[in-house]
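Minutes, project check-in
Item: structure for the 142-residue chain
Input as provided by the requester:
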Amino acid sequence: MRGWLKILAVLMLALVIAAPAGALAKRKKGGQLDAMQAAYAAAIRWGEFEQAWELVDPAYRQAHPMSELAFERYQQVQISGYSDRNSSLADDGSVTRNVELRVINKHTMAERTLRYREQWRWDADAKRWWLVVGLPDLWDGE
C-alpha cells in the first residue's frame, strides 16, 4: 500500500508542475498572437501591404500569389481606421477577429467603412501564428 501512496504522490507532484507549464505555454501563444495581430494591424494601417503579406500563411501565398499590380492597387487607398470589433476562438484552436476598416480613396478623398474577418492559425512546427485569409479586399468587388 505504501508503494501506491508514493506513486500517487509522484503523480500529483507531476500534475502540479505540469499545470503551470501548460498555462505558461498558452499565455506565450496568446502573447505571440497579440504581437502578430498588432504587427499586421500596424502594417495595414500604415499602408505597408508588402509587410502585411509576409504575415499571411505561406500556403495561402503560394495558392494566391500577389502581383506587383495588385500591390500597386493598394497604394491608391489610405487606411484611416483599423478597429478590432471582436474575436473568437474556434474548437480547432484558430482565432477569428472581426475588424472594421475605414478606407480613403486617395484620388476622390472619399472615405468608406468596410468589415473584414481575419482568421489566424497556430503553426506548431514554426511555433508562430499565420493569417490564413489573405489581405483585405478593400474594393469589395469594385
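Outcome recorded: The longest strand covers residues 77-89.
No further action items on this chain.
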